[in-house]
Amino acid sequence: MMNKFLEISRVGIEFPTSNGTYCALSDVDFHINEGEFVSIIGHSGCGKSTVLNIVAGLYQATSGGVILDGKEVNEPGPDRAVVFQSHALMPWLSVYDNVALGVEQVFKGNKTRAEMMEWVEHNLRLVKMDHATQKMPHEISGGMKQRVGIARCLAMQPKVMLMDEPFGALDALTRANLQDSVMEIQKELNTTVILITHDVDEAVLMSDKIVMMSNGPAARVGEILEIDLARPRERLALAKSDKFNYYRQQVLSFLYEKKGVVDFDAAKKKIETTPAESAQASSNDEKVS
Fold first, then answer.
1. What would the pLDDT profile of 147-156 be if each residue is shown by its tens digit?
2. Residue 287 lies in a domain
3. Who is most buried in 43, 149, 174, 207, counting CB within 10 A?
4. Rg (the chain; Cα; Å)
5. Whole-structure pTM value
């Protein structure tokens, strides 16, 4: 039986501005079980990334707090690894050395040099980048850079992997391939994942649970949708799945109809589009503006 591994408990945060205090989040409250893949979705400015940064320990909540595996989160730590939209690789280091950098920081004193080398190579194999260990970042594609960034996070053996729109800058085919790889790795390692995304299909495809945020200011959790789709998930099979389309419709309904989007005809068209049709559309069509 799964437990409440990560608890985001009544979190609120305020930021000082020239016009006074701005309340970005108010009473955000949900939990994540160990091994769950959870997406957070909502319109721009709803505080999705702010929630992730609070879990990462990069921001301090004004009220409430975060408990991870029984311990309060109040600063960054290797138990929470972040994959950003930008790969954030060190341009002067090779693929191997970019991953080794994190491994040395986390395991120095606990692993021998040989053990650390094998661990780096193991994690590069997981993301299918073991063929390019000596390449420099400028010598590999954007998708490959993200794979290295994911390997660097996995190599730290975090309790939670935090992914802030990691596929947003990639072309559609590379994005799909990397989504599939992340799902395979997550299933193999039973990693707990929080994914920030604007993409409805991506959220439904990858998640066990989708947390839908209300609009800001003072954004909060609007609805939580449990995704009951068998794994492994094949995107071509899901294109014909009524269940997949039902979940997709629920998310779109929340984002467009319940949040007061003016163009209801456009929202309705999005809801009625099948996953197969969506795959042929522009990669921006399913993004929430």
1. 999 999 999 9
2. no
3. 207
4. 19
5. 0.85
